[in-house]
Structure formats: C-alpha cells, structure tokens
C-alpha cells in the first residue's frame, strides 16, 4: 500500500526527472490511480511495468510474459504462455543427446575433402 508521503515523493520525483531532461519515466509496481496522476501531469511518456492501464505504454519482461521460469510471478505479470516445462524438457533432451553422443550426428557436421584431411594429417606427422 502506497502511503500519502510516498505518493507525494513519487509525483515530485517524476517532475524532477522531467525537469532534469529525462525523455521518459518507467514506473513499477504502483497503484493504477497513481500511475494515472503521474501520467496526466507529465509532459514526457510514462511507461508502466505494474503501473496500471493509464500510463502511456506498458512493458513486461518477455521471460515473464512467456513463462520461461517457474516460481514467483509478480502481481503485475500476465503470462500468455507457460514455456517453463517445454524449455526444461528441450534442454534435458539436448543434455541427454550430448551425453550419449547422439548429438552432433553426421547430419549436423560439416564435411571435409578426404584428400585435404590426408594432407593435413601427413603434415602433422
């Protein structure tokens, strides 16, 4: 919960940042009403990451949007996919293939002219 003094400080800080020459401000994890007040008073874009729907733009880390990781998800994150399981399964398959030497297979390797290889080996002897 944002206190009155914290709210006032955020509004003052936004004004100071704008006066100092900032081209935009990112507000994070604040109530939508406060995001609206800051946005309405600013002459520069206010971007929200958990700043409510009234800011000039929205940003979320794509790892959060796509659910790359398990565990805690911030309140302001809306996950549009849950790739955590898919990523873990894919990486485990890769680890298994490398460990068993199934990868890289011949189709994943570049070829070499056998005569060139013979010449290199002869030179190295």
Distance between the termini: 75 Å
Rg, Å, rounded? 27 Å
- Mean of all residue-level pLDDT scores: 94
Share of residues in helices: 40-55%
Largest sheet: 3 strands, parallel
- In DSSP terms (H or I, runs of 4 or more residues), the helix count works out at 5
Structural class of the secondary elements?
Answer: mainly alpha
- State the order of secondary-structure elements, H for helix, E for strand: HEHEEHHH
Low-confidence stretches: none
Explain what you see.
- The chain has 125 residues and is mainly alpha-helical.
- It folds into 2 domains: 4-59, no CATH class; 84-124, no CATH class.
- Helix content is 46%, strand content 8%.
- The chain has 5 helices and 3 strands, in the order H-E-H-E-E-H-H-H.
- The protein has helices spanning 4-19, 32-41, 62-65, 84-99, 114-124; strands at residues 25-28, 46-49, 57-58.
- The chain has a 3-stranded parallel sheet.
- Strand 1 (25-28), helix 2 (32-41) and strand 2 form a beta-alpha-beta unit.
- Helix 1 packs parallel to helix 2 (32-41).
- The longest helix has 16 residues, at 4-19.
- It starts with a helix and ends with a helix.
- The model has no long low-confidence stretch (mean pLDDT 94).
Topology (SSEs and partners):
Elements: H1 4-19, E1 25-28, H2 32-41, E2 46-49, E3 57-58, H3 62-65, H4 84-99, H5 114-124
Parallel strand pairs: 1-2, 2-3
Helix pairs in contact: 1-2
What's this, in brief?
The chain has 125 residues and is mostly helical.
Keywords for this entry:
5 helices, single chain, 2 domains, elongated, mainly alpha, three-stranded parallel beta sheet, 125 residues
């Amino acid at each position: 919960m944002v206190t009155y003094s914290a709210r006032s400080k955020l509004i003052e800080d936004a004004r100071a940042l704008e006066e100092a020459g900032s081209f935009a401000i990112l507000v994070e994890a604040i109530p939508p009403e406060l995001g609206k007040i800051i946005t309405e008073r600013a002459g520069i874009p206010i971007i929200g990451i958990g700043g409510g729907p009234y800011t000039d733009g929205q940003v979320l880390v794509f790892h959060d949007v796509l659910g790359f990781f398990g565990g805690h998800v911030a309140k302001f994150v809306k996950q549009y996919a849950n790739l955590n399981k898919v990523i873990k399964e894919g990486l485990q398959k890769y680890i298994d293939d490398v460990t068993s030497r199934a990868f890289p297979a011949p189709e994943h390797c570049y070829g070499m002219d056998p005569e060139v290889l013979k010449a290199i080996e002869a030179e190295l002897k």
